[in-house]
Design a protein that fits this description.
The chain is mostly beta strands. It has three helices and 21 strands. It has a four-stranded mixed β-sheet, covered by helices on one side. Strands 1-7-6 form a three-stranded antiparallel β-sheet, with no helix packed on it. Strands 2-4-3 form a three-stranded mixed β-sheet, with no helix packed on it. β3 and β4 form a beta hairpin. It is globular and about 55 Å long.
Length: about 375
């Protein structure tokens, strides 16, 4: 093992659209930890690169810090890690879709390891393929842009959507509205829609026999497992998306009962301000503009607080046992999974579930809507 400062990265000059199959070559790993590489021949858009490390030349290869042996802090801003001797640079994809964040595939531990959320058990390991996810919840402005196109192109919706302002997350849309909007967004951008009813694109009505076209490259709702992997931001065994086991109004828009951590029922709520977030005002919904708080490790905003979010899966009271690859939830059910606490739910909601935690689970009927639930989309690479 060698001791170096962690990944300060220099990328060789990248110019032009579409690229060739030329090999990416690491051309330097300096003593102060700067890793540099070059792409000998490229034509077109700058690609996206990822750095992977391994303890031996044949792997296993990692992109997160979870498997590093030690992290040593040398003061408040200077720190070092023990890192392995083998590195590679992987070209993953071309330019990212607008306003989307990359979630690297791999194994992650899903469920509640604290004992606070009994319906988020048993704890198990899932393997999830890489995907893109909206960096923010869908805003009213974006919803209305696609909605206008959709209603002029054979789509119908049960609800028109609402929000406090254009930059706030859209709410008052049900699960059927959300997945039809995903299809419309796909078609509007020239992508293949994901959701089908029978052999046709799902555009109208409220049907529970919707199926996924696994070959389509369009937008869809995240599965519950994808949502939790994205919410964790590359970290394991942490209660909240920012990688800590405490929450405050500095990090999320939620209803606080913590009183500086002195409330014995929610000692992890250390917010000095109680009740609604002090930056909110006026009548409900007490949402805030997207990007009002720092993102998590994947660059994703508001995975706790602001609004809860629809997922694809039918809800089950507990997870089925066993490790899985790309799970999609039960085949049938009466309620759909909703994830991420909202502006209304404090650390503990009416169902006695700590809703702001990344492991916390909620559910509601697919035809229902209210001013606490919105959504975001994902796409395959």
């Amino acid at each position: 093992m060698i001791k170096r400062a962690l990944f300060a990265i220099i990328v060789a000059s990248l110019m032009s659209p579409a690229f060739t199959s030329a090999q990416t070559v690491i051309d330097g790993l300096e003593g102060h930890g700067i890793l540099s590489w070059n792409e000998p021949v490229m034509i077109g858009d700058p690609p996206i690169f990822g750095i992977e490390w391994a303890p031996q030349a044949d792997g296993p290869w990692y992109r997160t810090l979870d498997n590093l042996a030690t992290v040593d802090a040398n003061g408040r801003t200077n720190w070092s890690v023990d890192i392995p001797r083998f590195f590679r640079v992987v070209r993953t994809t071309a330019q990212p879709p607008l306003n989307m964040a990359w979630v690297e595939g791999g194994d992650f531990v899903m469920g509640d390891t604290t004992g606070i959320n009994p319906n988020a058990t048993p704890v198990h390991t899932n393997h999830i393929d890489s995907f893109w996810i909206d960096a923010t919840e869908v805003t009213l402005a974006h919803w209305q842009e696609v909605y206008q196109w959709a209603t002029n192109n054979s789509y119908t919706f049960s609800n028109a959507g609402a929000a406090k302002a254009a930059s706030h997350p859209v709410t008052e849309i049900n699960w059927f509205d959300a997945i039809k909007w995903c299809n419309a967004r796909s078609e509007k951008e020239g992508l293949f829609p994901v959701y089908l009813v029978g052999f046709g694109t799902y555009q109208q009505g409220e049907f529970t026999n919707v199926v996924i076209n696994g070959f389509a490259n369009g937008y869809r709702l995240p599965t519950e497992a994808e949502w939790e992997k994205a919410a964790r931001g590359g970290r394991q065994n942490k209660m909240f998306p920012w990688g800590f086991n405490t929450i405050s109004h500095a990090q999320a828009n939620y209803f606080s009962d913590g009183n500086n951590g002195t409330n014995v029922f929610y000692p992890y709520d250390i917010s000095p301000t109680l009740g609604d977030h002090p930056a909110t005002s006026g009548p409900d919904p007490r949402t805030l503009p997207v990007r009002s708080f720092d993102p998590n490790g994947y660059g994703i905003f508001d995975m706790s607080g602001n609004v809860s979010e629809w997922c694809w899966d039918w809800h089950a009271n507990v997870y089925s046992a066993g490790n899985k690859t790309n799970p999609v939830g039960p085949a049938t059910g009466s309620q759909k999974v909703v994830r991420g606490g909202s502006w209304r739910t404090g650390p503990i909601d009416q169902a006695n579930v700590k809703r702001q935690m990344v492991s916390a689970r909620g559910s509601i009927g697919p035809a229902e809507e209210n001013d606490t639930i919105g959504f975001r989309c994902v796409r395959k690479p």
